[in-house]
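Bench log. Compound arrived from synthesis this morning; before running ITC I wanted a structural hypothesis for how aspartyl phosphate sits in the protein. Inputs:
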Amino acid sequence: MLSSGWVVQKFGGTSVGKFPKGIVDHIIKFYTEEQQNDVAVVCSARSSYTKSKGTTSRLLKCCDLASQGEDFMEFIEEVRQDHVSNAEANVETPALQTRLISDSNKELDLVVKYLEASKVLGEVSPRTMDLVMACGEKLSCLFITALCNDRGCKAQYIDLSHIVPSDYTTNNLDSSFYAFLVQAFKEKLQPIVQSKERIVPIITGFFGLVPMGLLNGVGRGYTDLCAALIAVALNSDELQVWKEVDGIFTADPRKVPHARLLSSVTPEEAAELTYYGSEVIHPFTMEQVIRAKIPIRIKNVQNPRGDGTIIYPDNQAKKGESTPPHPPEALSASFFETKRRGATAITTKSDIVVVNIHSNKKTLSHGFLAQIFTILDRYKLVVDLICTSEVHVSMALPIPDPESYKALRQAVEKLKSLGTVDVTKKMAIVSLIGKQMKQFIGIAGTMFTTLAENNINIDMISQGANEINISAVIDEADSIKALQSIHSKLLDERAQDFEHAVDERLEQIKRLD
Ligand SMILES: Nc1ncnc2c1ncn2[C@@H]1O[C@H](COP(=O)(O)OP(=O)(O)O)[C@@H](O)[C@H]1O
Ligand SMILES: N[C@@H](CC(=O)OP(=O)(O)O)C(=O)O
């Protein structure tokens, strides 16, 4: 498959909020004018500083209030004010500014209608929630479209919020649903693709009224998935996910000052990092694009010329290449990267609660685990890590908000019928991630010795079946110390003493000689 010339750029809510002019002048225009690419832009709802104060969070708060029959207008007015003053501050051409404000007001008025009806009913259906949430991406894309046109880059607003027909039925968001979406996106973008003039489509990251609701089906961060499907629809050369960091680092650079920028990671590593606390990319994003052989590049809106980090399998050829990059999989490039030393990155996840269950039977009866999971399932609780012995089960659960804490309390009451239950709060999971780790001996040893040397108590240990993740549960208060000390032993450029880990592959090769 040859180069199509298309590049899909996804911008997160805080980037749209903080750097809109930079996005248009130094990113969109750079790729269209200097690189001569065709660019498609996907935006999330605007957040000025943090996601929790962002438009999506405010709109979800309105849904919450309406479902309790309470007044929500205060939050609508906050969203309105935010977008009006943003339009006034950034869009200079009077006609474009007036139209943007009027279009934004219309969208918000519509949301008020949906919410008023829900308030009367005292219930917000998943469909209504989607209709309300979609407004965030609409406002953001109306704004970026106006700003592009204002600054001399021809752009067209594309609303995907009704792309899924109301009679579309599916029980889960499987590959046939994604295939349907890709086809629908292709049709929607066809006029722009065929246009003689270069037009940048500015596409709402909200993609339709998904059968069980976008929040239930995909979750926050759905715009990453939308951008991925657009990249597939356009047979794009690259999917660029623009953030406020230079790419993926060996650890969260805010917590580990010596963290290094990684030039590439595999999709499996990116997924593990995201799940275990480093919110890099929505996990659903990768499968579709990688299958279409499209690389994902994480880049920084504040440093657009940086190389960023590429997410791509180390054993698969890219679009337009006939063979995988050399050296081949058996001895992949990172195998020779001495700096990597087996592990790729380290991450921590906070708000973890450990639940221990001691069976009241002498031996583990069959069905014991099934009973535990049935209870957890009933309360929609997720288990991140689990360790079992014959009569004892330890589980680490993410409990990030009051709602999940309430569910946990109810589940614990039920679990008590199976045995003695104890609960430890304020814990964290520290995870060492690396696709190459499985061929090294001593990495887990070094990780746990480092924790011991730093007086950090380990509550649970787990090595995932995929062998790319070694995790331990520790006190949340120790998580920064754990990150920094393990990083300096196993990932720091200046790490001196890594004498314990033996590269098993290299040893095998030596033995063959
Ligand atoms: N290993 C990591 N590499 C890069 N960033 C990381 C890592 N772990 C955690 N982070 C944090 O993830 C955040 C991602 O960037 P940000 O632009 O804030 O995301 P968003 O697109 O959600 O707005 C950064 O604040 C960064 O500190
Ligand atoms: N606007 C949505 C979806 C999203 O993808 O956001 P972001 O790209 O900023 O993570 C949210 O806040 O969840």
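What the model suggests: The chain has a mean pLDDT of 89. The pocket of aspartyl phosphate (ligand 2) is lined by residues 12-13, 44-45, 51, 54, 56, 136, 205, 220-224 (CB under 6 Å).
ITC booked for Thursday regardless.
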